[in-house]
């Protein structure tokens, strides 16, 4: 019994250390956002201030970068989610001998370092878009290249999300619809797509967030433009200011709220499912009783 | 431009070969119940699916990679001379990795940087495995559902703070005026601040910190599907705890371990933020050298060549490791 308690204590201590490692730096950084010294310091805590948030708001480059990041994120979602969906459907129907090559090609962007994706995107599209002057002047810019570069690996994430959901799809539903006279496109729009809806939602969220925080690919593909992350990188390289900590506080706050909301929604769904199940059992019993 | 145009022909040939193979097979074993792709999805949807996937796999994945490789076999020329008579195929970019063209000496610096990046990444991979394994095991096998959900939430939140800000937060801790040095000097362990960033401690910690969760989730997924009865059985048969892990859990979770390790290793070798913001002034990270070829000396072909060298060496290493531990590539990248 006592050895068990020691084991428990050790596990608790280890979990504490682990989360200390994970959160410690973030907590310290958050404290510096509210402290007055212009060099970000957590200790000694001189006085509480919100100035760094104001400075952040007035930081032109960062606000421009933020705007670009959001536009790029929307562009990436618009490409990656449909591509991932189409790719997952083709994955389930493709000529069997071509499947392993197809799988390798679609998964390879996930194993390729982001730096290489960025470089190849720039080198390739520079020449392709330079074929005519019109395409060069219209499309050869950092925003377009970043969307293309990020979409190349984010589509693969979306593909994996859709594939995971598709494996749980009950083919009987499709057959039932076909027997009732539905056409294949109708099956897609009325059966498959509604079934995939949760995967579509998570693909959109993950695609946007991955795009938003990407650095390695973006730093090459962005050329002369900027995103929030590349502006941040420039700031960190030049020196340190508590305004960066303030930004981190905002991001952490948003993700905490998002995570808690997600948890609440999930728990409510679970409770509803349980209630529905209970009612179904009760209803069944009632029917059985009525028949008897 | 002709050598570059070849790139566009390769996918056409590959697709044609597979298409002909499919046609031949269909003619040999006719299967009347089998529907063609367009019958199966409708014409409009079928075309949309194929167009989307073709755009992605060709123009965003295969062609840029092939194009980068071809570009690396060209000399670095100003834009006006590209495609001209000077634009010949050459291995100069690759030989410059071995022999530095400036001074004609063996290019120890860049070779050392590659070896250093790889060794550090391997160490980081191993370290992260050691850090993550106990918690992954606890969450997957020992913890109650509610506790696991809470722990998961705690894992996901820091994951969405971007790489740069996480590096920044570590820099605040490890800087010479940072909290750790303040604490060490306050207790009296050292008199002068320790230069954690200068001696590369920052780099190692930064890499480990950045990719901790990339290791955690595959490990958790792999261990979670292990039947608890197997552990019970081993325990009932009198196995000590370390044998349970060594002989039951780890062999079972091998594909997950392989996929976590592969991802951490590849991300770490290719990382740019940690060496840029947490490395010492003299640290030579291989991706940072590539970065400089692009942004400082504007030698894109050489940067492409170095990127290709890095990719080939890393893939060879990963494949070698997977073979050593008898995991198939398919299992590892599932």
Automatic annotation (TrEMBL), chain A:
<feature type="transmembrane region" description="Helical">
    <location>
        <begin position="145"/>
        <end position="166"/>
    </location>
</feature>
<dbReference type="GO" id="GO:0055085">
    <property type="term" value="P:transmembrane transport"/>
</dbReference>
<feature type="transmembrane region" description="Helical">
    <location>
        <begin position="12"/>
        <end position="34"/>
    </location>
</feature>
<keyword id="KW-0472">Membrane</keyword>
<protein>
    <submittedName>
        <fullName>Spermidine/putrescine transport system permease protein</fullName>
    </submittedName>
</protein>
<keyword id="KW-1003">Cell membrane</keyword>
<keyword id="KW-1133">Transmembrane helix</keyword>
<dbReference type="Pfam" id="PF00528">
    <property type="entry name" value="BPD_transp_1"/>
</dbReference>
<feature type="transmembrane region" description="Helical">
    <location>
        <begin position="187"/>
        <end position="209"/>
    </location>
</feature>
<dbReference type="InterPro" id="IPR051789">
    <property type="entry name" value="Bact_Polyamine_Transport"/>
</dbReference>
<feature type="transmembrane region" description="Helical">
    <location>
        <begin position="70"/>
        <end position="90"/>
    </location>
</feature>
<keyword id="KW-0813">Transport</keyword>
<feature type="transmembrane region" description="Helical">
    <location>
        <begin position="243"/>
        <end position="265"/>
    </location>
</feature>
<feature type="domain" description="ABC transmembrane type-1">
    <location>
        <begin position="66"/>
        <end position="262"/>
    </location>
</feature>
<dbReference type="GO" id="GO:0005886">
    <property type="term" value="C:plasma membrane"/>
</dbReference>
<dbReference type="InterPro" id="IPR035906">
    <property type="entry name" value="MetI-like_sf"/>
</dbReference>
<dbReference type="InterPro" id="IPR000515">
    <property type="entry name" value="MetI-like"/>
</dbReference>
<feature type="transmembrane region" description="Helical">
    <location>
        <begin position="102"/>
        <end position="125"/>
    </location>
</feature>
<comment type="similarity">
    <text>Belongs to the binding-protein-dependent transport system permease family. CysTW subfamily.</text>
</comment>
<keyword id="KW-0812">Transmembrane</keyword>
From TrEMBL, chain B:
<keyword id="KW-0472">Membrane</keyword>
<feature type="transmembrane region" description="Helical">
    <location>
        <begin position="6"/>
        <end position="23"/>
    </location>
</feature>
<feature type="transmembrane region" description="Helical">
    <location>
        <begin position="303"/>
        <end position="325"/>
    </location>
</feature>
<keyword id="KW-1003">Cell membrane</keyword>
<dbReference type="InterPro" id="IPR000515">
    <property type="entry name" value="MetI-like"/>
</dbReference>
<feature type="domain" description="ABC transmembrane type-1">
    <location>
        <begin position="114"/>
        <end position="323"/>
    </location>
</feature>
<dbReference type="Pfam" id="PF00528">
    <property type="entry name" value="BPD_transp_1"/>
</dbReference>
<feature type="transmembrane region" description="Helical">
    <location>
        <begin position="150"/>
        <end position="169"/>
    </location>
</feature>
<feature type="transmembrane region" description="Helical">
    <location>
        <begin position="113"/>
        <end position="138"/>
    </location>
</feature>
<keyword id="KW-0813">Transport</keyword>
<keyword id="KW-0812">Transmembrane</keyword>
<feature type="transmembrane region" description="Helical">
    <location>
        <begin position="44"/>
        <end position="67"/>
    </location>
</feature>
<dbReference type="InterPro" id="IPR035906">
    <property type="entry name" value="MetI-like_sf"/>
</dbReference>
<dbReference type="GO" id="GO:0005886">
    <property type="term" value="C:plasma membrane"/>
</dbReference>
<protein>
    <submittedName>
        <fullName>Spermidine/putrescine transport system permease protein</fullName>
    </submittedName>
</protein>
<feature type="transmembrane region" description="Helical">
    <location>
        <begin position="264"/>
        <end position="291"/>
    </location>
</feature>
<feature type="transmembrane region" description="Helical">
    <location>
        <begin position="203"/>
        <end position="223"/>
    </location>
</feature>
<dbReference type="GO" id="GO:0055085">
    <property type="term" value="P:transmembrane transport"/>
</dbReference>
<keyword id="KW-1133">Transmembrane helix</keyword>
<comment type="similarity">
    <text>Belongs to the binding-protein-dependent transport system permease family. CysTW subfamily.</text>
</comment>
């Amino acid at each position: 019994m006592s050895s068990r308690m020691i084991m428990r204590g050790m596990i608790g201590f280890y979990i504490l250390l682990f989360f200390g490692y994970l959160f410690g730096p973030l907590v310290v950084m958050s404290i510096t956002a509210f402290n007055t010294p212009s060099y970000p310091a957590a200790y000694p805590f001189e006085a509480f201030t919100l100035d760094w948030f104001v400075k952040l708001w007035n930081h032109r480059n960062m606000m421009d970068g933020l705007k670009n990041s959001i536009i790029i994120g929307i562009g990436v979602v618009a490409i990656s989610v449909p591509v991932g969906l189409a790719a997952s459907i083709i994955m389930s129907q493709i000529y069997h001998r071509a499947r392993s090559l197809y799988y390798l090609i679609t998964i390879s962007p996930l194993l390729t370092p982001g730096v290489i994706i960025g470089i190849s995107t720039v080198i390739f599209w520079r020449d392709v878009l330079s074929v005519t002057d019109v395409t060069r002047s219209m499309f050869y810019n950092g925003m377009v290249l970043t969307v293309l570069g990020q979409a190349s690996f984010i589509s693969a994430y979306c593909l994996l999300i859709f594939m995971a959901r598709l494996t749980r799809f009950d083919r009987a539903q499709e057959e039932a619809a076909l027997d009732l006279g539905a056409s294949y496109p109708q099956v897609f729009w009325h059966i498959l797509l509604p079934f995939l809806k949760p995967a579509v939602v998570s693909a959109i969220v993950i695609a946007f967030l991955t795009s938003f925080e990407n650095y390695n690919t973006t730093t090459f593909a962005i050329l002369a433009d900027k995103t929030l992350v590349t502006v941040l990188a420039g700031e960190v390289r030049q020196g340190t200011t508590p305004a960066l900590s303030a930004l981190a506080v905002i991001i952490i706050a948003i993700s905490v709220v998002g995570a808690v909301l997600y948890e609440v929604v999930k728990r409510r769904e679970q409770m509803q499912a349980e209630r529905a199940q209970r009612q179904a059992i009760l209803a069944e019993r009632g029917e059985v009783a009525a028949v008897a | 431009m002709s050598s570059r145009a070849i790139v566009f022909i390769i996918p056409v040939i590959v697709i044609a070969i597979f298409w002909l193979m499919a046609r031949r097979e269909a003619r040999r074993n006719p299967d009347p119940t089998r529907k063609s792709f367009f019958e199966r999805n409708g014409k409009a949807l079928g075309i949309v699916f194929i167009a989307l996937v073709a755009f992605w796999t060709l123009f965003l994945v295969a062609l840029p990679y092939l194009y980068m490789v071809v570009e690396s076999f060209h000399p670095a020329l100003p834009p006006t001379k590209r495609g001209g008579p000077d634009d010949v195929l050459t291995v100069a970019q690759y030989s410059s990795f071995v022999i530095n063209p400036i001074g004609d000496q063996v290019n120890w610096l860049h070779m050392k940087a590659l070896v250093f990046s790889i060794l550090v990444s391997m160490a980081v991979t191993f370290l992260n495995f050691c850090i993550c394994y106990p918690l992954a095991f606890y969450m997957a096998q020992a913890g109650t559902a509610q506790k696991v959900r809470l722990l998961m939430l705690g894992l996901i939140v820091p994951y969405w703070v971007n790489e740069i800000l996480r590096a920044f937060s570590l820099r605040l801790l490890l800087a010479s005026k940072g909290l750790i040095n303040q604490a060490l000097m306050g207790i009296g362990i050292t008199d002068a601040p320790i230069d954690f960033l200068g001696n590369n401690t920052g780099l190692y910690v930064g890499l480990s910190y950045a990719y901790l969760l990339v290791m955690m989730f595959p490990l958790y997924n792999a261990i979670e599907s292990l039947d608890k009865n197997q552990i019970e059985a081993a325990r009932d048969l009198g196995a000590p705890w370390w044998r349970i892990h060594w002989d039951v859990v780890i062999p079972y979770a091998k594909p997950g371990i392989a996929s976590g390790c592969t991802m951490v290793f590849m991300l770490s070798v290719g990382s740019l933020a940690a060496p840029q913001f947490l490395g010492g002034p003299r640290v030579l990270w291989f991706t940072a050298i590539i970065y400089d070829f692009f942004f400082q000396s504007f030698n894109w072909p050489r940067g492409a060549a170095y990127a290709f060298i890095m990719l080939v060496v890393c893939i060879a290493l990963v494949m070698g490791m997977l073979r050593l531990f008898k995991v198939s590539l398919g299992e590892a990248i599932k």
